[in-house]
């Protein structure tokens, strides 16, 4: 009687780990290198074992992430005809319209939708993801990441959902640690375009206000520095303000912090229209004229930009196009899990009255 193939040592060990409860659905396996060292077998033998388990529906390999147990609720189970959308806010000047576009497009394709809100809180995101996993939900997911500029304790839940064969698409931002596609603005290009616009108006003493807890803020700052270096303009950190979501909502309306940072600037790049609106109010109250003393450029081109005391020059948020693209790319991802669903919109600028050339100041 011949000896059993070497790869069976691995497949039998993994199946035993499942049987005794040490491995359960969604758990991540040791890496190929770790399994190779554990069993003193070649990487090729390990890959053979994992392929056998994958074909048997016991594990699922996720590109760029690892191999996961999918025993019992793997991707062979059909997906539901409901898409769950997890968004940050219901009351922002961006999200209501964006969500309407997504829902309309998904409905046209025969999908109902369920919308949940995290209020940009990590603990709420974790609770919602745990509930989805506990329910064994087969809903495809559209998710706006929570504070994507910071380390996130919920990444393991996303990996478990991936392992279970759930299509996931991020919108507006993404978690760089995860191999999950996203649809968003090209935020580094946004920061670069906004800064280049001011530089071309002759400004060199340029400040910036960016969000520290959102990935978009960090990318827009990176674009800011790209442009300043390209024009050989001096980057001075005392002209840069970093704020977080809580500060923006609770404190900055009453704080002189922003104006102190901008006192040597002729122009400023604002993370979004909300911040530019806040800066405008503070400047006018302090007798600082917009744009004669300080030019402002912001991002989103929302109604707030148009209604600001001084209408804002702003990078356009492709609101409807982004919502359509989010829905369309999720639908394509549902039918083809290998579809490259990441898409980033290039920036365009709407000019208004908040910027003048430096020689007019």
Helix content: 40-55%
How much is the radius of gyration in Å?
25 Å
Proportion of residues in β-strands:
15-25%
**SSE order:** HHHEEEHEHEHEEHEHEHHEHEHEHEE
Judging from the principal axes of the Cα atoms, what is the shape?
elongated
Q: What is the average of the pLDDT values? A: 91
Largest sheet: 6 strands, parallel
Distance from N terminus to C terminus (CA atoms, Å) equals 92 Å
According to DSSP, the number of beta strands is 14
In DSSP terms (H or I, runs of 4 or more residues), the helix count works out at: 13
* Widest sheet, order of strands: 4-3-5-6-7-13
Low-confidence stretches: none
Class inferred from helices and paired strands: alpha/beta
Summarize the structure.
With 361 residues, the chain is of the alpha/beta class. It has 13 helices and 14 strands. Helix 2 (32-39) packs across helix 3.
What does this structure look like?
The protein is α/β, with parallel strands linked by helices. 41% of the residues lie in helices and 17% in strands. The chain contains 13 helices and 14 strands. It has helices spanning 7-19, 32-39, 43-55, 95-108, 122-135, 155-163, 187-200, 215-230, 245-250, 257-262, 273-285, 303-307, 319-335, and strands at residues 59-62, 66-69, 82-87, 112-117, 141-143, 168-171, 182-185, 206-211, 240-243, 267-270, 295-300, 313-316, 343-345, 349-350. The strands form three sheets. The chain has a six-stranded parallel β-sheet with strand order 4-3-5-6-7-13, sandwiched between helices. A six-stranded mixed β-sheet has the order 9-8-10-11-12-14, sandwiched between helices. The protein has a two-stranded antiparallel ribbon with strand order 1-2. Helix 11 (273-285) links the parallel strand 10 and strand 11 (295-300). Helix 7 packs parallel to helix 8 (215-230). The N and C termini lie far apart (92 Å).
């Amino acid at each position: 009687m011949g000896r059993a193939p070497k790869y069976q040592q691995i497949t039998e060990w993994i199946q035993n780990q499942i049987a005794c409860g040490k491995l359960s659905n969604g758990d991540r396996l040791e890496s190929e290198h770790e399994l190779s060292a554990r069993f003193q077998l070649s990487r090729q033998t390990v890959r053979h074992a994992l392929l056998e388990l994958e074909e048997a529906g016991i594990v699922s390999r996720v590109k760029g992430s690892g191999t996961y147990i999918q025993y019992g609720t793997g991707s062979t189970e059909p997906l539901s005809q409901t898409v769950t959308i997890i968004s940050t806010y219901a009351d922002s000047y961006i999200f209501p319209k964006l969500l309407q576009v997504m829902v309309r497009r998904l409905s046209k394709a025969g999908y109902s939708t369920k919308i949940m809100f995290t209020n940009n809180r990590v603990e709420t995101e974790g609770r919602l993801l745990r509930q989805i996993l506990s329910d064994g939900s087969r809903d495809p997911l559209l998710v706006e990441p929570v504070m994507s500029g910071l380390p996130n304790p919920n990444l393991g839940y996303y990996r478990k959902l991936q392992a279970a064969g759930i299509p996931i698409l991020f919108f507006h931002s993404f978690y760089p640690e995860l191999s999950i596609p996203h649809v968003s603005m090209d935020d580094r290009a946004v920061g670069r375009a906004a800064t280049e616009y001011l530089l071309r108006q002759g400004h060199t003493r340029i400040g910036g206000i960016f969000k520290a807890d959102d990935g978009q803020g960090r990318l827009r700052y990176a674009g800011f520095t790209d442009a300043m270096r390209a024009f050989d303009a001096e980057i001075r950190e005392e002209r840069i303000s970093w704020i977080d979501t809580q500060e923006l909502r609770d404190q900055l309306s009453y704080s002189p912090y922003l104006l102190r940072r901008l006192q040597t600037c002729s122009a400023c790049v604002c993370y979004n229209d909300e911040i530019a609106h806040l800066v405008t109010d503070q400047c006018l109250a302090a007798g600082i004229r917009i744009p004669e003393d300080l030019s402002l450029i912001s991002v989103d081109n929302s109604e707030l930009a148009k209604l600001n005391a001084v209408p804002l020059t702003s990078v356009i948020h492709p609101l409807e196009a982004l919502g359509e693209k989010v829905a369309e790319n999720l639908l394509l991802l549902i039918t083809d899990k290998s579809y490259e669903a990441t898409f980033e919109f290039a920036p365009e600028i709407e000019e208004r009255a908040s910027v003048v050339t430096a020689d007019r100041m």
